[in-house]
């Protein structure tokens, strides 16, 4: 081979190696994107209305997970996402059976090394309840983020796409690891235990009124300012992996002129626990107390909660809980107290042990 030809061959070889190396560096220099599973369950985020100005009176749970993902191409910049349609329901129809299916699927997925976080799209009506249930039964520190929308996907300025984008980037964030189940709505990050839906229809409906949100999502970044002080997820003592059903726990709502009819009906139907969402600090009307005592004598566990929604229900405050052998809900609202009591009853009916749980979770 002449010298000139050899020199050209060497130059060509170097060029090929250079291009190959830079491509490899380019590949390596691409940021690794976390693998986030999006589990879709329905709700308004998947809803459609008759026109772009229909923000009430639309149909929830009509858009599939692949279309939800396709509507937000920006997701590909913040995570490597895959979608799974677990169910397609309006969340007023959520129930214990759906929860067990969802929780078991979440735990199977989070046990996989190739799943870094999970986003669950959900109706807003019971979103806070599903979030708290998962907060107590997910066996992983990996992020689980629930997200919904107050406007259907067809509406002007629908909030679903940006909420989904925020939820995915949160689930992909190392900052969200170990924080418990989170709720991402309206650019805010809430803890599952304390967030609640406070408005029937406005975008800022989800609030953690007094105990405070955990942080914000701004400019495609999560910002945490505090963490929950209560146990959750991998630290929780509840295991639903072998459960086919959950104990029946019902809620009686306190109001002026309240009587024992609803309570008696729940007990007759086989309730294993009753949440009494009393007026004020969980007060018991004298017309109802005998029925509560009778229910407890039949083995039903009674939890004194409050309809007020904020503040501590004080043990031995409005009733002698020590004497009655009742449990108090601490700061949990009635719908969340039902969830904790249900899970507590999968382990014990000892009221002292159950009270311990209400001060721990
Ligand atoms: N019906 C409501 C639900 O599915 C719609 C929503 O707000 O998501 O919870």
**Strand element count:** 14
The ordered string of helix (H) and strand (E) elements is HEHHEHEHEHEEEEEEEHEHEHEHH
List of distinct ligands in this structure: D-aspartic acid
Give the CATH architecture of the largest domain.
Answer: 3-Layer(aba) Sandwich
Sketch the major β-sheet: 8 strands, mixed
CATH class category of the largest domain: Alpha Beta
| Category by helix and strand content | alpha/beta
Overall pLDDT: 93
Q: How large is the count of helical segments? A: 11
Please state how the strands of the largest beta sheet are arranged side by side: 2-1-3-4-5-6-9-10
Could you say what the CATH topology of the largest domain is called? Rossmann fold
The named CATH superfamily of the largest domain? L-asparaginase, N-terminal domain
Inertia-based shape: elongated
* Gyration radius, in Å: 25 Å
Contiguous uncertain segments of 5+ residues: 21-27
Share in helix = 25-40%
Total number of distinct structural domains: 2
Topology, element by element:
Elements: H1 3-29, E1 35-42, H2 65-70, H3 75-78, E2 80-89, H4 96-110, E3 117-121, H5 127-137, E4 144-147, H6 160-171, E5 182-185, E6 188-191, E7 196-197, E8 206-207, E9 215-218, E10 221-224, E11 249-253, H7 261-268, E12 273-278, H8 289-297, E13 301-306, H9 321-324, E14 327-328, H10 334-344, H11 351-360
Helix pairs in contact: 5-10
Bound molecules: D-aspartic acid.
């Amino acid at each position: 081979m002449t010298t000139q030809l050899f020199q050209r061959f060497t130059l060509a070889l170097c060029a090929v190696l250079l291009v190959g190396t830079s491509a490899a560096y380019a590949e390596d220099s691409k940021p690794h994107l976390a693998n986030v599973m999006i589990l879709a369950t329905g709700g308004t985020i998947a809803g459609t209305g008759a026109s772009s100005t229909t923000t009430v009176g639309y149909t929830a749970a009509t858009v599939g997970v692949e279309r939800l993902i396709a509507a937000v191409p920006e997701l590909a910049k913040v995570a490597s996402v895959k979608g799974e349609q677990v169910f397609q329901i309006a969340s007023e129809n959520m129930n214990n059976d759906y929860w067990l299916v969802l929780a078991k699927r979440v735990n199977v997925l989070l046990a996989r090394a190739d799943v870094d976080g999970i986003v669950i799209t959900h109706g807003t009506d019971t979103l806070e309840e599903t979030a708290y249930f998962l907060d107590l039964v997910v066996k992983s520190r990996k992020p689980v983020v629930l997200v919904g929308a107050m406007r259907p996907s067809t509406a002007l300025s629908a909030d679903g796409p940006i909420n989904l984008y925020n939820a995915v980037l949160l689930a992909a964030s190392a900052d969200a690891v170990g924080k418990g189940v989170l709720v991402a709505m309206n650019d805010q990050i809430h803890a599952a235990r304390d967030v609640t839906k406070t408005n029937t229809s406005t975008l800022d409906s989800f609030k953690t009124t007094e105990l405070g949100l955990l942080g914000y999502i701004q400019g495609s970044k999560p910002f945490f300012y505090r963490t929950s002080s209560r146990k959750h997820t991998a630290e929780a003592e509840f295991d639903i992996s072998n459960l086919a059903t959950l104990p029946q726990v019902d809620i009686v709502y306190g109001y002026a002129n309240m009587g024992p009819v609803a309570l008696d009906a729940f007990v007759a139907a086989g309730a294993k626990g009753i949440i009494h969402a009393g007026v004020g600090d969980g007060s018991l009307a004298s017309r109802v107390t005998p029925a509560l005592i009778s229910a407890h004598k039949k083995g039903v566990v009674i939890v004194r909660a409050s309809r007020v929604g904020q503040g501590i229900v004080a043990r031995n405050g409005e009733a002698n809980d020590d004497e009655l052998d009742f449990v108090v809900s601490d700061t949990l609202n009635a719908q969340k107290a039902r969830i904790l009591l249900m899970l507590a009853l999968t382990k014990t009916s000892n009221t002292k042990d159950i009270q311990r749980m209400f001060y721990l979770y």
